[in-house]
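Open question from group meeting: does this chain pack into something compact, or does most of it stay loose? Before anyone orders reagents, we agreed to write out a predicted structure and look at it together. Recording both the input and the output here so the notebook holds the full record.
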Amino acid sequence: MLLEQAPKELRASILRAADSPLARFRTDPQAAVDHLDHRAGGAVEARVRSFFGAEDSREIRVELHEVEREFPPMRSVPPEMAAEHKQMMHDKISGLELTLSIALEDGTWLNVDTRFQRPPLQWPIFSAVSFGFTAAFLIGVAFWYLLARLTWPLRRLAQAADRLGRGEENKPLPVAGPSEVRELTDTFNHMQERLVRTVADKTRIMAALGHDLRSPLTALRVHAEMVDEEETRDALVKSIEEMQDMVERTLAFARGMAISEAPETIELGEFLTELKCDMLNAFRLETDTPLQVRLRPQSMRRALRNVIENAVRYGDDVEVTYSREYDRASIWVRDHGPGIPETQLEEVFEPFFRVETSRSRETGGTGLGLSIARTIMRSHGGDVTLQNHPDGGLLARLDLPFSQSSNQQERTIS
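Structure tokens returned:
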């Protein structure tokens, strides 16, 4: 150390030369740092000791702490400059004081006092707010992109499944998104293709069967007309006509399973009013608030006609109402007839099934009307159920679910 190598009479001059506005040096018999439990200066002590070398084991004491009181300006700094600096720092200047005591070879101590300022983060409020909004926007866009990449294929798949359940025609969905979603979409496309192909094959088989049956039935009708005995001829013609009627109704049942008519969005009250006029006011209609539904008009008209005609045939004073049931529209058809046994409320939907004990003075039909109605309703994603009304008569409920797009639009409006 230069101070130890210089003569003692020159030490004062060396210390004065080393003094600066930021640090003051002096030699004293006692160390200015009088306690050894100050841990904050460990890094400073290691740094100072590195200047002396590893073989030097002199004692070095460090005391470092923050200034809690108002920080006075440095020496030799003009008052005007100090005031401007303080204003620029918004009066939030914090300071640190360092006291260093180094043992000298002659038993005295070199005491060093220094003080330095630690200015706060210089960030204007506008810049901070602008940065916060920009960061939030960028993070939001990134999250939106990631969520959209995952949820949009799932939402599109859900809408396609809803359309398939309602009997609407779907094009194969594009395979996109994460690997699991791509696999799910590809599986759905194959399932949809198999379902449509199966229904189409069954419909073609039924149509071909009906076509093949028409020819021999027509030939039988011609031969029956040539029978001389009137009673026998009438019996044969009646049987052939009954067989032709069953064939036509069977084909009608098959057409009810086919998906060919394009769906439309209609107002349910107006749709039922038109049906009432077509059926020559065969029932009473109570309209409620306007209700938009998506359906295949011709198929739905056929299903409603079958249910209402069944109610008119076996009951009196038929009432038709409709209402909204959360995610579906419900059409209620009630008659005031004798009803049917509870055990046969589901059996009447089986093809060609007829209630053993007639509900009316006369019987009719082939037992396909309710089967066709249920097939059509289920192709729309709905169903038909029957129950005996507590006050007498039979109550038919036709449920028609809203499409997902309709639900989303109504939620947006409300």
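Observations to bring back to the group:
The first helix runs from residue 2 to 5.
The mean pLDDT is 77.
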